Amino acid sequence: MTAFPVPARETDIGAFLRARRAAVRPEEFGLPVLGRRRVPGLRREELAQLAGVSPDYYVRLEQGRGHHVSDSVLDAVARVLRLDDTEREHLINLARSAGARSRPARAPRQRIRPGVRVLLDMMQTVPAFVLGRRLDVLAWNPLGDAVNGFSTWPAGQRNIVWRTFLDPRARTFYRQWNTVAAETVAFLRLDSGRHPGDPQLTALVGELCVTSPEFARLWAAQQVRDKTSGAKLLHHSLVGDLELGFETLTLPGDPDQMLVAYTAPPGSPTGERLQLLANWTAPDADPVRAAVPPPAERTL
To answer: Which of 21, 31, 50, 189 could cross-link 80 (Cys pair, CB 3.0–4.6 Å)?
Structure first.
C-alpha cells in the first residue's frame, strides 16, 4: 500500500484551536478592533485573558505541550470559543493525547456480534447497516444493500468516506453531495480525536488528502460533528429519488459501532419505493421480479 504524508499528530490541537479562534469575532467580547490585526478572530493573548489563564499557559496548550491540563481550563477555553458539546469533547480528547508519542498497535479487525447480525436480518422492511471505526461498513441487511449497494464495493473499499470522495457515482447518489461530504469529514475528524494515532485512519486521511482536494479542504477546516439523526436525499438508479430519515444508534458494549436505520413514512412515495426494493430482495420474490437486475448491482 502506498504511504501518504499527513500532518504530525502533535499539531492537531493547535490546528483545531487556531481554526476556532479565527471563527470568533473580538467585538463579541467588547474587545477593541483598532488598526490592522495580524490574525483573524481572537489573538492568543486575548483568548487567554478571557479564559482566565496566563498567555504562556495557553501557548503551551496550543502547541501540544499542555500536559495534564485541567478540565476547568479546557471548559474555560471551550466557553470562550463557543464550542458545543461535541466540539468540547473533541478538544478534551486532543488535549489528553497531545503528549502521547508512542505509536498504537494496529487495531484488531472489528466484528459484529451474532445478535446484531440477527437484529439486522429481522429488520426486513427497514434499510439498516452497521458502521465501525473510520466509518467502515461492517454489515448490512438485504434492504440496506438494495439501497446502498454495499455488496458490490470491493472489500478493501467498504468505507463511507472513501466512497463519498473517490467514487464518482457518489455525486449522483447523494443529491446533496456537498452537505454529505462536509458531515462525513466532520465525523471522521471527531473519530480521529477519540482514537489518536490510529494508523489505519492516518493512512485513510493521507490517501484522501492527496487524491481529493475537496477532502483536503474540509479536513483542514477542523469541523467536528457527531452522527446521530437527520435526513438523506438519495437518487437510486432503479426506483428514483428517496427522501429518507436516518437514526444512528450506538451499540451497547461497543461504542465504536453504530447501527444506522433509514426511515420513511408509510404510504409516502419513498415508502412505496422502499417496498418495491423490499419485494425484489425478499427470499421468496416472484421469479419475474427476481429476473430484474438486483438494485445492489446498479447503485453505489
So the answer is: 50
